[in-house]
Design goal:
mainly alpha; two-stranded antiparallel sheet; about 180 residues
């Protein structure tokens, strides 16, 4: 019985973060080929608050829901076309980002500096996958890709990291997570 209640709790946590990513994906501003959205914030929080397996499951569920047609991607988008399109690499990058954050915090602790570094590494992984994907799919130069897909997002993603660290520290304390 105890094991099934732990499993139910894990599934509930995964579902919560899947829903948070889907919700925050709708808070977008389309100013170019890659929309600004808040979706990276709950991705970072999933990594900070969940074990790596649960973080991976929550983001895999988000990606699967979108792939099969549930409108969870930015602008209520969905489908394999969205995953295979120019921004698909950034969407797919959410999964390794959350896992890297989770693994880093579990390995080196939950101090704010560790969380910020782990989250920066997660964002970097997401940027790397997304930028390479965009570069290949759109057949543009690296400088064009960086100008469109990376440089405009750096300040906003730094703010998301800071906010995620602050929220994580408060939530870890409230939830009595180590």
């Amino acid at each position: 019985m105890r094991r099934s209640s732990r499993s139910a709790g894990a599934l509930a946590r995964c579902a919560l973060f899947t829903a948070l990513v889907a919700l925050c994906s709708q808070l977008t501003l389309n100013l170019g080929p890659v929309p600004f959205s808040l979706s990276l914030l709950p991705v970072l929080l999933a990594g900070a608050l969940l074990p790596p397996g649960e973080a991976a499951l929550s983001l895999a569920a988000y990606l699967l829901l979108g792939a099969v047609g549930v409108p969870v991607f930015s602008g209520f988008g969905s489908g394999l076309g969205k995953l295979l399109g120019p921004t698909g690499g950034y969407l797919l990058g959410y999964l390794p980002a959350a896992v890297l954050v989770s693994a880093g915090i579990r390995r080196w602790g939950a101090a704010w500096q560790v969380q910020a570094a782990a989250m920066a590494a997660g964002v970097l992984a997401c940027y790397a996958l997304g930028t390479v994907w965009f570069l290949i799919s759109q057949q543009v130069s690296l400088s064009v890709c960086l100008r469109l897909c990376v440089w405009p997002f750096l300040p906003w993603d730094a703010v998301k990291i800071a906010l995620a660290v602050l929220l994580s520290l408060r939530l870890r304390k409230a939830l009595r997570l180590s």
